[in-house]
Design a protein that fits this description.
With about 475 residues, the chain is an alpha/beta fold. The strands form 4 sheets. The chain has a 9-stranded mixed β-sheet. It is built from 10 helices and 21 strands. Helix 7 packs across helix 8 and helix 8 packs parallel to helix 10. The longest helix is centred in the middle third of the chain and has 18 residues. Helices cover about 25% and strands about 25% of the residues. The termini are far apart. It folds into 3 domains: about 30 residues; about 200 residues, P-loop containing nucleotide triphosphate hydrolases (Rossmann fold); about 170 residues, Ribosomal Protein S5, domain 2, CATH 3.30.230.10. The radius of gyration is 26 Å and the shape is globular. This is DNA repair protein RadA. InterPro entries: AAA+_ATPase, DNA_repair_RadA, P-loop_NTPase, RecA_ATP-bd, Ribosomal_Su5_D2-typ_SF, Ribsml_uS5_D2-typ_fold_subgr, Rubredoxin_2. One of its GO terms (cellular component) is cytosol. Keywords: ATP-binding, DNA damage, DNA repair, DNA-binding, Hydrolase, Metal-binding, Nucleotide-binding, Stress response, Zinc, Zinc-finger. GO terms for molecular function: ATP binding; ATP-dependent DNA damage sensor activity; damaged DNA binding; hydrolase activity; zinc ion binding.
Amino acid sequence: MAKGGESWVCQVCGTAARKWGGRCEACGAWNSMVEEAAPVALPGGLNGKAKRKGRAPVFADLTGGEAPPPRLPSGIDEFDRVAGGGLVPGSALLVGGDPGIGKSTILLQVVASLARLGRNCAYISGEEAIDQIRLRAGRLGLGQAPVKLLAETNLANVLAALDGAGKVDVVVVDSIQTMFAENIESAPGTVSQVRAVAGELVRYAKGRGVTVILVGHVTKDGQIAGPRVIEHMVDTVLYFEGERSHQFRILRAVKNRFGPTDEIGVFEMTDAGLSQVPNPSAVFLGERREDVSGTVVFAGIEGTRPLLVEIQALVAPSALGTPRRAVIGWDAGRLAMVMAVLEARCGIAFGPRDIYLNVAGGLRINEPGADLAVAAALVSAMIDIALPRGMVVFGEIGLTGEVRPVTQSEARLKEAAKLGFEQALIPAGGTKRAASLRVTEISRLADMVHRLVGDGSGTQAGHPPRNR
């Protein structure tokens, strides 16, 4: 089609349609279709007859190779861990997250640390004035770092400024939704603008050997396109997670061409900015109380790091016709599955009771290895009997009631032993026993229930019967 026209583009996933619709057919988002000018096709396309001229590239063989690209360590170990060991020259990173979560703060700390190590860094902001950035840097104690600042939203001016700044090593663009290209008629923040600006910045990174870090955020009403539109264009995608009411922030890698995925870095929000948490397990368990029913310590794995967190469950009588199921930090659908297996295979009937499940510390758990810990917390809260002191639990639960082994069991047990735990309830088979832990292996979920309930009279391991 040689002529340009109008099309309706979803601002969440980028799907184009010929007419407006209240709901996007591709991603299901509501009220996300915005009218944009369709790009003009060039004459002589793939099916055209026009003569095409171009440089013929040379194919390379699969054998052979080059040395791995050098890394630029930022000096912030938690950030470098998530990035795969440091920043790679010529790569593009995307840091996404909700507004106010701390994206600008952590990136300002990263470029300031790199600049102090002798790297030429530029921080380009489309949301704040230069004086605002200086004030924030002063509060963080970074006022003396030799970082180049620029407040600009025009992409052409940004690229011209970078060309005139000499050899730049790292560039931060905060945020990608505020930048615009003059040749695109859409407003800044739309899918067309975000895709075009990101494409130019990625080409600049690859062509000049510069590390470009893009910041993307999503508003509550969904009017500004989220960073998912350009995830396939960049090399690394990092997401900043956490609750504003909580002091802990999780930097999670969901895509990384130069390192492991699902790696996390833990930070704590303080008056002096984001400080590293080198031992997250000890922090997440720092306020844990002993001898409380419904609390279980789960030994999980986040990327390559073993992590111990507390899972809390509360079972209470419901005054509603439909009992409530509230989950924070875990999958609500998986909670329903675990409850169904407990009822069908173990005879634990929750009935008209409200179920509340919480992962302490604001961390979100995605792995199925937390099934057994959640089940133990539910049963403990149901019968009001606390688990033994110093016990960690992990394992996956099947629909038939079996308990399946999980990966990296030995690393989980070593982390638990390092933090002073003495017992572990784990799936049978597939693991080596830790010398300093008393390990109990089970193959059926009913075995765990029997250990808590005992002989059915409400007594277990010396605990008196309590109010159920």
